[in-house]
Amino acid sequence: MIRLVKVDRAQQVNWLTLPLALCVSLFFGAIVAAYFIGQAYGVRVVPCVFRLVTGQPCFLCGGSRASFLLLSGQPVKAMAMNPLVAVGVPFAAVLLVVRVLFRGRVEIVGGRARAMFWLFLLGLVLVNWVYLIVVEQG
């Protein structure tokens, strides 16, 4: 079961809030900077190291381009580029807003539900990875 819990100010910021805010902020900052640098100088974003080593895309390949497409208001093209990033980035931003502005916390109640949630996320990552490999080969 997933529920939204209202927390008091003392519990609002915990060990996860600051790293989550930092990661989301750095990600958006890096994407925006790369976008404008690419537009101004025609420079391509740094290629994926996993792809350089293995020749196959990683599960996040195309994530920068998907983020650029999201920023430019093209969510359908972003979904085609990398569905995990196209859905995950806005979802993480919403969770951060709920956490910081509304003092809410999303909880997964129960050990079995928590395990199922993590298995579900792992499944999404694997399905996304297979999708990227198939699209690249197709």
Summed up:
This protein is mostly helical.
| H-E order | EHHHHHHEH
Strand content: 5-15%
- Helix and strand composition category: mainly alpha
Which word captures the global form?
globular
Mean pLDDT: 81
Give unreliable regions as ranges: none
**Number of discrete domains:** 1
> Count of helical segments?
7
Placed side by side, the strands forming the largest sheet appear as: 1-2
Can you tell me about this structure?
By secondary structure, the protein is mainly alpha-helical. The protein has one domain (2-137). Helix content is 70%, strand content 7%. It has seven helices and two strands. The chain has helices at 9-12, 17-41, 49-54, 63-71, 75-81, 83-101, 111-137, and strands spanning 2-6, 104-108. It has a two-stranded antiparallel sheet. α2 (17-41) crosses α6, α4 (63-71) packs antiparallel against α5 and α4 packs across α6. The longest helix has 27 residues, at 111-137. It is globular, with a radius of gyration of 17 Å. The relative contact order is 0.17. The mean pLDDT is 81.
List keywords for this structure.
single chain; 138 residues; mainly alpha; two-stranded antiparallel sheet; 7 helices
Topology (SSEs and partners):
Blueprint lengths: L1 E5 L2 H4 L4 H25 L7 H6 L8 H9 L3 H7 L1 H19 L2 E5 L2 H27 L1
